[in-house]
Amino acid sequence: MPQLSADQQTEDQQLLDKLRPSRIVLPVLIGLSVVGFMFWRSYKPGDLAPLANAKPIWLLLMLVILVARDAGYVYRIRYLTQKVLTWRASLDVIMIWEFSSCVLPSAVGGTAVAPVLLHKEGIPLGKSVAYIMATAMLDNMYYMLMVPLVVWIGGDALYPHEALQGGLVTTLRIGFITSYIFVSLYALLMMYAIFFNPQSVKRLLVRLFSMRGIRRFRGKAYKMGNEMVLASAELRGNGWGYWLRAALSTAFVWTARYLVIGCLISAFIDVTWPEFWLIFGRNLTYKVILLIAITPGGAGIAEGAFPTFFGKFIGTPTMTNFMVLLYRLVTYYLYLVLGAVFLPRWVARIFGKPKAAQVMHS
């Protein structure tokens, strides 16, 4: 086996430290403690009666959507990397990416790990960064385009007036609008940098972060500018077919992600179609809470905020809290388990079996 440089060994160790299975413990404890407290505070005998009237077709549809969403992610990363990744490698990358999103703070997410995962699969680091920047741009553009649509359809009902006082609704509205503006500006800036003039964007970022008060972030801005220059060099020559496929797969996976809650509620509660699409729209305001969560995978915060946004459609607090548990089981705890399954296999394939055994016991 070739000898690794000190920098390479450090990069490998940092990656494996971020992905060590012991990181599962904290988010599970936080999330289940919050749900347990909510059950303890709200439980009333008979409130779970709707469970007896479950509609299996909606549960099946939810599972199909979950599988289709992950298949869409696998498809997207394989074709964004121009099929350098095999289907198996693409699946491994997505599962470990999801796992890292669950065990790292939501503000960081799996994006911090993803370029290194691609690099370990044999893709040069510059290209790896470019591909991840492309996914970030596409994800943000989906949000930028979808928000006006759901605001047009749902209007003021997107905000949970029934659960929040007027001042808190105003705060949420301001947070939602502010996050939308920042996400849109970031998406447009990345698009301009990748397709038109990355050097000017780099200069803009460096000058912006040279201002007093935010000067300490200048180094990160300089690094991001360099990454945009690299991304532009790697991606600008790709044709319309490449970007159309990437955009459609992005729209598919995010639409599927936002459909899960509606399907889950519909499995136990009678929901009208206007209510179903309002639930879809409220996912975008719910996302604002998760964007600022500082806990791993938003653990505790996602559970605590869920009743505020979706309790109106479910009914009793006990039933709502049960929905919280089911929702987090299929969209969060499931990926902790899958990560614990895929991670040792991936580490063994990339680093060798002794390293996999070491990681699993860390």
UniProtKB/TrEMBL annotation:
The membrane topology of this protein is:
Multi-pass membrane protein
Offer a single GO CC term for the protein.
plasma membrane
Looking up InterPro entries in the UniProt record yields: L-PG_synthase/AglD
Bilayer-crossing residues are: 24-43, 55-75, 96-118, 130-153, 174-195, 251-272, 284-302, 322-343
**Alphabetical UniProt keywords:** Cell membrane, Membrane, Transmembrane, Transmembrane helix
The listed locations are: Cell membrane
Q: Output the Pfam families linked to this UniProt entry.
A: LPG_synthase_TM (PF03706)
Spell out the NCBIfam families in the cross-references. Answer: flippase-like domain (TIGR00374)
Protein name, as recorded: Flippase-like domain-containing protein
